[in-house]
Amino acid sequence: MDAIIQEFWKGRERKKPDGQCIATTLSTTVDPERLRRFVNSANAQSIKPQIQDRIRYDLSGRRCNCSKDEADGWGNIYEAFWKAASEIVVIQDGRGKSSWSTVYEAWKDVVLNVSRGFTNYNFERWALPVLEATARDLRILALKADDERNNTNTEDTPSFGDDFDLEGEKHQKLEDCARQLNRLFTLCLNDRAELERSRKWSIYYIINLLFKTYFRLNKASLSRNLIKALLAYRGDMPELTQFKVSEVVTFQYFQGVLEFLEENYVKAEDHLTEAFFMCHRDCIGNKERILTYLIPCHLLTSHSLPSDKLLAPFPKLQSLFGPLSTAIKHGNLKAFDEALQECEDEFVQRRIYLTLERGRDIALRNLLRRVFLAGGLEEGKNGGEPIRRTRVPVSEFQAAVSLVSGEAVDADEVECLLANMIYKNLMKGYIAHDRGIVVLSKAGAFPGTKV
After folding, report:
1. Domain around 128
2. Is residue 428 part of a domain?
3. What share of the chain is helix, strand, coil (3-state, %, to 5)?
4. Angle CA(177)–CA(181)–CA(183) in degrees, nearest 5?
5. Has this prediction a pTM greater than 0.85?
6. What H or E segment, with its residue span, contains residue 439?
7. Where does the UniProt annotation place the signal sequence (predicted)?
8. Number of folded domains in the chain?
C-alpha cells in the first residue's frame, strides 16, 4: 500500500498538485507485483480505516495538505480501487472465480467515486487526469469483459429467436460503459465554475471516448447528440484550439467520419484535412486512419487521386487505393471493378465501399476524355488554326467502353452512360441521337481536366 499511497502524496503535496502523477496510481495497467502488494497490504475489513489514515498522514506522521472533505474523497476512491485491484489479482493468479465482468463492475465504483470527488468533495481542475484515466480504463475493461463473455462456450444456451437481442448481448458491458461515460460527459458539460477551475477541460477527452464507444457499438449516429450538446454550450466552452492537440485531432477525425457517413463530403474533407495536418508526423497509424476517409473525399469533391509520395509511408493504403487510383487514372473500367471487388471486404468494413464505387464515374470520365483527345484536330474555319474535334460519333465511345470493360456494350447503354456524365457535369455537351454523335463543348468539354 505504501508505494501507491506515497505516489499519491508525491503528486498531491507539490506546490501545484500533479493529477497525472496520481492518475498513474489508479490504473489497471500498473505493475502486477506492485498491485499485488497493494492488495495484500489489507483485507476487506481493514482497508477503509487504513486507506483513510494513510491518505491523511504519511509514514512520518505529517498531515496531508488537503481538506478533510478532499481526503475523504480520495479515501473512497482508493478503497474502491483496492476492491477492483483484488479482482484483477485473482485473475492474474488464476485462482478463484473472478472475471473481467466482475472487475468491470468493481471499476464502475472507482469511476463513480471519482465523479463524486468533483461533485461532493471539492476536487479541483488539477485532478481531471484522474477522471480521464479511470474513464479510459472503464472502456478497456468493458471490452475485455465482453470479449471474455463472447469467448465463453455457450453451446448449452437456449435460442430465443427474435425475442432475444444476440447482437446487443455481445456488447453488454460496452453498452453500459457508454451510459457511464455519458454521465461523465454531463458532469463536465454542466459545470458552472470559472473556466480556470472548470471540469470542461476534460470534455473533449470524454467525448472522444464516447465516439470510440459508439463506433464500436455500430451506433455512430448517437455521436450527433454529443456534438449538438457541445454547440448548445458553445458560449461557455473554451476554444477548441485551447485543448490538447491529441484531443483536437481525435475530435476532428470523428467529426469528419460522421460527416463522411452522412455523405457531407465537403465538410468531412475540411475536418479530416485539419486532423491530418495537426497529427504528429510520427503517428503513422493515426494518419492512415485519417487518409482512409480523406482520400475518398478528395476523389468525390475534387476528383483528385493520391500521389505515390503521399501513400509511400502507408503500405496498407497503397494496397487498397493504389490499384484503384491506377485504374481511374487510365480510365480502365475493368481494372477498377476488379480492384474494388478484390478489397471489397476491407472497404465495407471501413465503410467506404459505396463512396469508392462512385469513383467509377471518374474512371469513365477519364476514358471518354481519352477518346475525345484521340480524335485529334480538324481544320479551322476560313483557314484558321486547327481546332479540336467536338463532334464525336457515339460508336467511338462505344468501342472504347467495350474494349476496357471486356464485354460488348450496345449503343443505347453507351448513350445512357454519356447522358449520366453530362447530368453529373463531368462532361459538357449534348447527344444528337438521330445523327449518332455527341457534340461537346468547345470550352471545357471535361470540366476540371483542362480540356
Report:
1. 2-150+168-194+205-211
2. yes
3. 70, 5, 25
4. 120
5. yes
6. strand 437-440
7. none
8. 2
